[in-house]
Amino acid sequence: MKKGFTLIELLVVIVILALLSMIGLASFAKTQKRARDTKRRGDLKAIQNAFEQYYEDNNYNYPANASGVAPYFSGGSWPVGPKGENYTTGFVFSTSNYSKSIVLELGPTISISNLQ
Length: 116
Hints:
Blueprint: H1 7-57, E1 92-93, E2 98-103, E3 109-113
Antiparallel strand pairs: 1-2, 2-3
């Protein structure tokens, strides 16, 4: 009597391992997207806080451009998104208001403005 595994047994094990690894990779990818979305939410909150600090420090006026708010961020420059996104693009500025929307990878679009 020979000892060892048959070809069918080896194929079954390989298929099971492949299925488990696909499930793990899908879960890992979703976790990475969730982490990037969390960073985007945090960045958007930091931007909103910087605008409100600028507003209070400058006679209740918002900045007319992105460079005016930069000193209000830690490090003195705007945050950069997890995939290198530039948050100053698509931003609406004026001395009386601001607004910005970001599309999340796993969810809806989130927005900030002085009207919230």
